[in-house]
Specification:
Helix content: 40-55%
Shape: globular
Strand content: 15-25%
Strand order of the largest sheet: 2-9-4-7-10-11
Structural class: alpha+beta
Oligomer: single chain
Number of helices: 11
Low-confidence stretches: 1-5
Length: 294
């Protein structure tokens, strides 16, 4: 069978269904990397050593892991890796939600959930303190027999998670094919310019002009609003595009390097390995190993 495509999962959700809840115990993870139309909240416990791959993010998890994914294009998988546990528990909740400006989640009590779900298009990881806050509700969710109460309990979980101040996105926006959004129109203009011109040299003076600020003031402003300095942000975006090309195309590493705005192959390899903990070639091979078509 061909190995170059991601499995597109057909979920059990049908027609008027609201939730699909799978609460299972397993000895290993064997599912290939995949994506699907529905949104997914995935909780894993007793699985230290498992590798979680979400887009171009690859991390080894601890004893507890909780991730929300709300993009149909974002590939993800939990791999066995070095996990030795034979009592892994996985609770997966798949659901539909309307994130449009006319959707139910635009109403006042739900806007915080909607904001979180928009962030989760890149995959959203919740730290242990957030997991422990919602653990009792996740733990009992599959035993709630009444569909109405199951849905209200699930949205209570989402609401509690939406209060998190330490949740972090996993995939880069460029890899996840997510349009940048920001509360600041200045930052939005700058990010859009970078997204359109990442292949070329991006000058601080040009971006400062777009923002209508001096270069020094803009540098401080950009870091305050993004948490990263400008050069780090540009490198992150270029690596995201490079990772997507490694997965989706057969282009050589050198060609991808220059297509993504890096002007030195050895420098590209060094930065990629430092940020992704593997070389570009290894990244491509690792994806192929976990992919299959069914």
């Amino acid at each position: 069978m061909e190995e170059s495509r991601v499995i597109y999962e057909i979920t059990p959700l049908m027609g008027q269904d609201s939730l699909y809840i799978a609460d299972r115990k397993k000895k290993e993870f064997t599912y290939p990397i995949h994506n699907h139309d529905v949104f997914e909240l995935n909780f894993v416990e007793h699985a230290a050593g498992v590798r979680r791959v979400v887009g171009d993010s690859s991390e080894v998890i601890g004893s507890y892991d909780l991730v929300l994914i709300t993009s149909p294009d974002l590939e993800h998988v939990w791999e066995q890796n070095v996990c030795q546990s034979d009592e892994i528990r996985e609770v997966t909740v798949q659901f539909y939600a309307d994130l449009s400006e006319n959707g139910f989640l635009m109403r006042s009590p739900f806007q915080q959930i909607r904001k979180m779900m928009l962030e989760a298009r890149k995959g959203l990881f919740f730290p242990l303190e957030d997991i422990m806050r919602v653990y009792p509700m996740i733990d009992s969710l599959s035993s709630v027999k009444d569909g109405f109460y199951a849905v209200t309990q699930f949205y209570s979980i989402l609401y509690e998670l939406s209060k998190s101040t330490k949740a972090r996105t996993l995939a880069t926006s460029s890899y996840a094919k997510v349009n940048v959004e920001s509360d600041s129109k200045r930052i939005l203009k700058v990010k859009n310019y970078i997204a359109q011109n990442y292949k070329y040299e991006v000058r601080l003076s040009t971006l400062a002009d777009i923002a209508g600020m001096s270069p020094s003031a803009f540098s401080r402003f950009f870091k305050l609003h993004t948490g990263r300095n400008l050069s780090e942000y540009i490198i992150e975006q270029r690596l995201g595009y490079a990772s997507r090309m490694l997965v989706d195309t057969s282009k050589g590493v050198a060609e991808i390097c220059y297509d993504c705005g890096f002007n030195n192959l050895s420098n590209f390899n060094r930065i990629f390995k430092k940020r992704k903990n593997c070389s570009p070639t290894e990244f491509r091979e690792n994806y192929k190993k976990t992919r299959r078509v069914v």
